[in-house]
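Anyone able to model this chain together with iron/sulfur cluster?
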Amino acid sequence: MNISGRMTKTHPLRTLREPAELVAERLAPAEALPALERVAARYAVAVTPALLDLIDRADPDDPIARQFIPSAAELASQPGENADPIGDHPHSPVPGIVHRYPDRVLFKLVHVCAVYCRFCFRREMVGPGKDNALSDAAYRAAIDYIRSHGEIWEVILTGGDPLMLAPRRMREIMADLAAIDHVKVIRLHTRLPVADPARISDEMVAALKVDGATTWVALHANHARELTGPARQACARLVDAGIPMVSQSVLLRGVNDNFAALSDLMRAFVECRIKPYYLHHGDLAPGTAHLRTTLAEGQDLMRQLRGRVSGLCQPDYVIDIPGGAGKSPVGPNYVSESRDIAADAGDAELKTRYRIVDYCGDVHLYPPET
Ligand code: SF4
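re: yes, here you go
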C-alpha cells in the first residue's frame, strides 16, 4: 500500500526494465511500445518494486510515473541540450574524478542505479552497457589523485548510485578515503533509501561510518510520496547512526512544480531529519524538455516557499551552468541598491540604501551604511 493508503499492491516483486513489461503492467499504452523501445535503446529503464507500488495507474499524470516511466517525448532533443550538460568531462583529470571546485571532487564509482530517472543529467553515461565500473587500476589512480591534492577536503561519491555497491566494498572504499589525511568529509549521493529501502541495511550503515572522516548522505527525492514508511525507516537508520542527511531534488514539470507538492516534499524531508539542500533547475539533458520548468516559474515557487513554509524547509534553488562552470543560486533576489537622498541624511548627500522585499512582496528601505 502506498503512503496515502489509497492503493493495494499489484506490482510484480522485481524491477521492470523492458518497455513490454511496462505495457503488460498497464504502466504505458500498448500503442506507445515501438517508441518506448527506441527510447530504451538509448536510455536505461528500471523501476523498482518500491516505486512501482507508488504509481497510481488510474492517473495519467501520476508524478511518480512521470519520473520513471519512459515517454516518446524523450526522442526529441531540443537546441541547447547536451550529452554532458553540466560539463563533467572537461573537469575530469583521471577517470572517475570530476574536480570542478577547489576543495572537493566528485568520485564516480559506478554507472548503474536502482532506478533510471527520465530527467537524469547523466543519462548518456549511466545504465547497463555503459562504462559500468572503474577498473582496479582506475580506482587506484583516482585514489592517488585525491591523495596527491591536499586541497581536497570533501569527496562526493556519486555515479550512478554508489550505494549499489556491496557493503563490504563500500567499507573498503570509505577506509581508503578516510586514510587520506586531508579528506575530512565523505558525502554520498543516493536514491536508494526511496528506490530500494531494504538496501540501507544495518551492514551498509555500518560500512558508511568510518574513523578519520565525517560521512554525510544526500538523498535524491522529488515528491513527498517517495518518502514512504520503509523509506523513512531507511533514512532513520542512517540518521540514528549519526550520519547527517541533506536532500537534493530536481524541479520537474508535472511532478513538483506547484506549491503544494514542493512544500509537502520539503516538509517530508525535515520530518525525516533531512535538511533541504538543493532544488536543481532541470539540466539540459537530451530529451528532457517536457520535464523542465522555466527559471521564472522556479523563482516564483521559491518566493511562495519563503513566505509560507518554515525556514527549515528552504532549499537553495540552483542551476548547473552548461559547460561545467559550476552551480549558481538562481532563487529570487530580495535586495537591491537604491542611490538617492536618504530622508535621514542630514547633509542631503546621495547615499546608497538597500531596498529589501519581505515575504509578502512589500518593499522596505534599509538605512544607508555609515
Ligand atoms: S538515480 Fe541519479 S544518476 Fe541514477 S538515473 Fe536517477 S538521477 Fe541519474
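The CA atoms of residues 118 and 258 lie 19 Å apart.
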